[in-house]
Amino acid sequence: MSSAVVNGLAGAGGGIIAQIITYPLQTVNTRQQTERSTKKKKAGGGAASDASTLFQMLQLIQTEGWGGLYSGLKPSLIGTAASQGIYYYFYQLLKNKVEGVAADRGKKGLGDGTVGMFSWLVIAAVAGSINVLLTIPIWVLVTRMQTHTQAERKMIDSKRELLLKEISRSNSMDVSVLKDRLAKLDSEKPLPYGTLQAIREVYRESGISGFWKGLVPTLIMVCNPSIQFMIYETLAKRLRSKQSRKQLPKKNITAMEVFLLGAIAKLGATVVTYPLLVVKSRLQAKQEIGRNAMSRYTGTIDAIIKMIRYEGLHGFYKGMGTKIVQSVFAASVLFMVKEELVKFVVLLVARSRTLLLTRNKKG
Q1: How confident is the model at residue 313, as a pLDDT?
Q2: At the N or C end, where does the chain have fewer CB atoms within 10 A?
Q3: Which stretches are transmembrane (predicted)?
């Protein structure tokens, strides 16, 4: 089994475990990112949004049950397994080739035989772009499922406001009819929303192209894992170099060291690229929230312009505190589990070969 396949499978396994553990935070964060607010509300709303993550989680459980925290989990797990598998497969494939070229150059006296920081950035960017093009439809569905109830409630509230205005302007004969409509509206609850409903809705709204909504910011977001892997590989290289300078026995980086390196790498990447993540989530979420122009986006540029106009720069950083906690912890778990799975497979293969050689000698 090639190292690329091993790393791909290990990445998929690590991603699934990390996703299950941190998914409730991801659901709350997606809702924070897609929540619209005007510039007037930003002074108090921004801090409250990040500070009240636990409160929002408890409120979500109260209104939608525990299932609300895991809306879209099934396609998300499929997406995570596919994304991490594809990403790590191509990342390792390209890494092996680049390391081979660097080693050959080192033998010829061209460089120190190791891969430089820029090369790591390019490798991660190429692997990330391939991953995005193949898996973005899954994440469009996940975002829809995470924000469906929120969007439906907004639409009901918008209808309620219009009815209340009509009641205040109507004569006594019409008021009773309008009040009946208002009572019926108040009794409405968001309908159950599954993967098939999400697929039908996306296709009905935008056709096949709808499944690639947010592609531009998502492709630009490739710089997130690129920066993450550049930081991780650079720190890992320095750690190994430090061990060799101290003349310590050559050994693999420990699970805890991998966990910490993964956390630092993801923290740096998330802070730099978070505004793009918010734009992506806005584009992939259901657009018909209310009747205001600020709620609907026709594309990436339109979303950026409207967010600046109606919400200010604060809008690009909604829920960043929640995202940092979720993504840093998820990345740390993923890195740690993935590396341990790779070690386990390598050890298993080595033992199998030893047993096979022993049997052949005896035979």
Answers
A1: 84
A2: C
A3: 115-140, 211-232, 253-277
Phi-psi region of 252 (alpha: psi -120 to 50; beta: other; left: phi over 0): beta
DSSP string, 271-304: HHHHHHHHHHHHHHS-S-SSS-GGG--SSHHHHH
Please identify every stretch of the chain with a pLDDT value under 70, giving residue numbers as ranges: 1, 36-51, 150, 167, 170-179, 182, 185-192, 245-252, 286-295, 362-363
CA distances from 3 to 121, 163, 272, 320, 339 (A): 20, 63, 31, 35, 12
Would you state the pLDDT for residue 42? 43
CATH code of residue 75: 1.50.40.10
- Which residue, 318, 229, 234, 238, is CA-closest to 266? 229
255 by DSSP, 3-state: which? helix
> Is the CA virtual torsion 131, 134, 138, 140 positive or negative?
positive
Residue in the block written with tokens 């797990």? 77
For residue 183, which phi and psi values (nearest 5 degrees)? -65, -40
DSSP secondary structure string for all residues of 182-215: HHHHHH--PPP--HHHHHHHHHHHHGGGGGGTTH
Q: How far apart are CA 81 and CA 66, in angstroms?
A: 23
Q: Give dist(CA 130, CA 128) in Å, integer.
A: 5
> What sign for the dihedral angle of Cα 306, 310, 314, 315?
negative
Report the SS3 class of residue 145. helix
pLDDT score of 284: 76
For residue 176, the number of C-alpha atoms closer than 13 Å in the C-beta half-sphere is: 2
Residue 189 lies in a domain: no
| Distance between CA atoms of residues 110 and 149, nearest Å | 58
**Contact at 8 Å (CB) between 167 and 182?**
yes
Q: Looking at this protein, which amino acid is placed at residue 264? A: I
Q: Which domain holds residue 115?
A: 3-149+208-362
For position 47, what pLDDT does the model report? 42
CA distance 19 to 58: 20
Number of domains composing the chain? 1
110: left (phi > 0), else alpha (psi -120 to 50), else beta? Answer: beta
Question: How confident is the model at residue 174, as a pLDDT?
Answer: 65
- pTM for this prediction: 0.56
